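Students often ask why we bother encoding 3D structure as a string. The short answer is that it lets us treat folding as translation between two languages. Here is a chain of 305 residues written in the first language.
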Amino acid sequence: MNECIDVMEKTFRSLATGECLQPLRSLMWLPDKSGILGMMPGYAAGPGVMGIKIITVFPANKNLGLPSHQGVVILFDAKNGEPLLIADAEEITAIRTAAASALATRLLSKEEASVLAIIGSGVQAKRHIEAILLVRKIKQIRLWSRNENNAIELAEKTASTFGIPVTVQQNVQDAVAGADIICTVTAASQPVVLGKWISAGTHINVVGSCTPAARELDSNAIVKASLFTDNYESIFNEAGDFIIPQKEGAINGNHVKGDLSEVLTGTKNGRTTNDEITIFKSLGIAAEDIFSAWHIYEKVNPKMI
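And here it is in the second language, the structure alphabet:
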């Protein structure tokens, strides 16, 4: 995870210089809406590679004991098209998603942030705890999940692993009240966090929803916050957290203050006051997968570089 946070910084710095091609992903829904096949191509000039992530998303898989996200990342040499690597997309996605949130947290949250709220109890909940603890000195963690048993299990493992007090809350409002950092990592289609519950100065990583009709935050939360993203094209076309309040007339495209590459390079401001609420809307982009796969390739093939 620590390595991957550094890889995410390299990714967004490369995006800032225009060295990457980052097309909008292509999604194919099954007729019954039970699952999605996603195809995410990209190119990175720095390492000289291109690649694609092919991934399926089946939210009901948790009932079958299977991961919700499964697939492969395929990496190619951009000079001659030679295939270099086929990697497990489930693991890459799990790590790089949380690592990107950690980078956003380092850039946008208050340095003294110490209370973390995690909404959800799946793979991304676990990974986000791991990632956020690497960039902020967290003293207290609160969990909420629709599956209370999962939340209790995660709380026990987290407290044992990191030696930090972890509590499971009975409702979302109690979980987020007074939190410095909130991570929403659910499969919800309707808002689970309301703007009226969010304290001044909070930073929120909004991770779980990635389609135009689904969102984890209500319109009020988006309106009252400074909104940042990983990719403009993605947030304008895929993010229900942005698209729904835009359709309501509550916001427009100017409400997006910047992407991570702009904040990293200083072309856009991040947090400007301690009372400001900041939101990082994470969609996940192919460049994150390609740079992660390249990092893995360099580690397993050092003599070939």
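Translate back mentally: The two ends are 23 Å apart (CA to CA). Keep this in mind for the problem set.
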